[in-house]
Task: structure prediction
Amino acid sequence: MKICVLAPEFLPNWGGTGTYLANLFKYIPKRVDIHVVTVNRDTITDQPDQSTEDIAELLGRPLTIHRLSSAKENFFYNISFQIACLRKLPELCRQNDFDIIHTNHPHMPDLFSRMMNRIRIPKVTTVHEVMTLKRQLILKSGVEFAHLAQSEKAILTLYPFLRACEILQFKTGLVFIAPSKYYAKILTTLGVKENQIYVIPNGVDTSVFRRMTISSHDRPTILFAGRFVSQKGIETIIDTMPKVLNSIPDAQFMFSGAEMPPRYLDAIKNRHVPNESVKFIGYVSNYLEMPRVYSRADVYILPSISENCPMSVLEAMSCETPVVAGYGGGTPELIESGQTGILIPPRNSTALANAIISLLQDRHFATQIAEAGRKRILEKFSAETTANSTMQVYEKMIGCFV
Result:
């Protein structure tokens, strides 16, 4: 079996899609010949692109990497890759005789190739986000346009064009992987037939993401890791800070991610949150260091308006860090509230504060949540489980086209 994976986001960039693919490849059987078609991206991390040999060693399996273009990290980097795929992918397919092309939405790397109908190989698409829902969440956040992240501004500005492209992707797609039942329902409302959809949750590498012993951990720590965009509930976290600190004065809020926008920093200052109560550790370029980050935290929070199947929640649970998350979207499929984590209404800082305080003040309860969370990941959301289910989709597709 020979699989071509279109991945404008790939190692050393450990973004959402890059992480998904790395976990998938690690546990796909080595008899599968994996070819990754990707780009050189030079500003995402401070690390240079890794060689094929380095990545193969990291994943513990052989693979072939084809870098078709170069791009900087911005909202439009994908266009150059789409054009490169239009020009070079057909010949690459002829040379290698791929059985399946696996692509990821909303990157749409094969957009122009689909428009021109240049490649007639069965395609499977994993849907991480959809533009229609993304736009709704941005608007629902209530954040003024001027204060949105650049990517969010671009989505709102270019939405008619992006929506048209998305419609083409869904109309010409053959098989879709939805990481949550919630997203499977979203796809059916957008015209995808139920028999085209396979629900396969994201999986975490439980051999890497496990509880680590941290000797210098001396303050109750609440962690957020992710992008500082409106969907993630950053304003809710900031509103929560004074409420938590009133009950637990030595608590510390720790943020992992790219540089926090000035408006959020101003909001923290305006709430008179002490400097020592907030810690910024920046973007962790080495993804394999993230288990230590989770292990430094007593609580992980993700008060998003909505999510699909959030990797950070899976990773925190796997590291036995109790999770408090918004119950929008597919997150309730991961967490049984009060048992394996705590779910709260989105945009409700009082509920978030109460959940954090309960976990910090009742360590027995927090330990129960943490242990049950790890058990649930091992049973339902390991990277190995995701890879096995994805292999079944590959084999079924090939069987249908023999």
